[in-house]
Records
---
Amino acid sequence: MIRIFALLVMALSISVHAEISVIVNPGNANAVSTDDLNRLFLGRTSSFADGSKATPLNLAEGQASRDEFDSKVLSRSSAQLKAYWSKLVFTGKGTPPKELADDAAVKAAVAADTTAIGYISSGSVDGSVKVVATF
């Protein structure tokens, strides 16, 4: 009985990862690949494939969706990204994407700006934004 209980507790303690949706303003017609997302969110480019300006928006550190995005899309841990951006900022070679507090803030900012691109939990998506990728 104790073994069954222990297995049940272990099964329940495994974290369930939420699906992440990459969103843009509905007026943005650009397709976005994983490679594009890497370049945008690592500061290697500041434009979409068509040459128009892109403004990446991050969730605040510690948000589960940010950890998922960093891991699934950027293939880096939050510590690795912090070190990456610290080096670029220190040398004057880059500025990290603006951070917003939560899904609602990212969604509102993307809905209001045709240049913005961000990510939120798929459960937070509504008609005010357009999903261009899901992870």
---
Amino acid sequence: MKRRHFITGAFATTAALALGVSLYRPELEPVDAEDSHRALFAVLVPVLLDGALPRMSSPREAAINRTLDAISQTLTVLPQSQRDELELLLDGLENRLGVLVLTGSMTPLLLRSPEQLVVMLESWRDGFLEMQQQAYYGLRELIMASYYSCPEHWGTLHYSKPKI
């Protein structure tokens, strides 16, 4: 067997496996539309809000859950075109083939360490492709806006609600 045939065969097999894993969808319980990407955001929120979240575990989890609820509410008020683009990105990040294309690794984001996620997001932010930068800033702005839309987080900004 020639080396070129071996490399081509290995590449084709890897691509076929990636596509097969990507297309295989076991029957699962239907997921509520609002909570469809909650697990993905639960992984991204602590990474993108590092330093803003409380350090103690109980208040930290409460802030993360409150932010996840705010993200769900924010998604409902986005224009349909932006919601469609975001849905496409989130579906890609939850799909093995999409993760491979977007991040260069087949490891699902849910199984990555926070350090690996930081490296991935920084490469998107500093990447030369406008699509990567747009994905980074879109996710970052959505999470930041949702976090700071909660009145309990305004104190860190030294902001108080105007008195009418």
---
Amino acid sequence: MSNTSIKNYTTDLYELIKHTQTVIRSQKNSENVMNPKAVDLLHDIDMAFTNQINGFEDLGILNEGTGKKVKDNLAKATGKIAGFIDSARDDAASKMLRDDYTALSMIASGYTMLHTSALGSGNEELANFTQQSLTRIAQLITETSKVLPHIVAEEIEVSDIAEEAEENTQKAWNPENFLVE
């Protein structure tokens, strides 16, 4: 794989994370996000993104002028989904977290692709960074899936079922419950 391709993949993912961090930061300041679990989750996502952005910059393999071209390249890299995530910040906290879950999943896919490319090109430093970053994103996806039932239950005013909803949804992700072919 060429160095140009690695730079392009790296830059695309970097820009997606920067854009998503901007959205996360606006959500942290939203009047609609009052639940302490949601506030803590958004803070954790923001901190993880800060660390990952710094990690990308430390690697020194981003395309030149990255900061100036974020919006243009983001549109190419992520299409309409990123625009959707950034829209309507007047949404309920549950919808914000749903959109964050989607964005985190896109980022996880990006890290999977970049990790594979780094391994293929023999870039051990990038492979290690992407593996660590993917692990953190997977943790944040899991945490989002645990917080979301609490936020929905709170919004529909049935908070007493939040723990049960969380437990049930987490069971769905247990590999023992997957269909065997």
---
Amino acid sequence: MKNSILLLLLIVTTNLFSQETPKETQDDFLIDYSEVQVKPEFPGGMKSFYSFIAKNFITPEEVNLAGKIIIDCIIEKDGTLSNMKVREDVGHGSGDEAIRVLSKLPKWRPGQHNGYPVRTSYFVKIHVESSR
């Protein structure tokens, strides 16, 4: 009898903890880009994304400036970018300029996990080269 009760308790406990998180509690979860089931996507694809960056990014007026800018951000469930932080830049205000341009982007198609849109961590890499 004791073994039957213990087995029943174990099965009930396992079922309670193995259930998926309800949608209403998924709102604040942040899922890494590599783990999200459906990746976020910029309208028109990455070629369109980098075209937008190229048209709007104002390169600092420095001689022989070259390098990369990396911006960490979150693609929200509504497709907007938030929490933009400069991880790496080439100086001369390039990180701030990258954030300014990213703030102007149209909405992305958000990432999805378990069939629901989710907040997805993401990073953007922009290569800068100036030969002035």
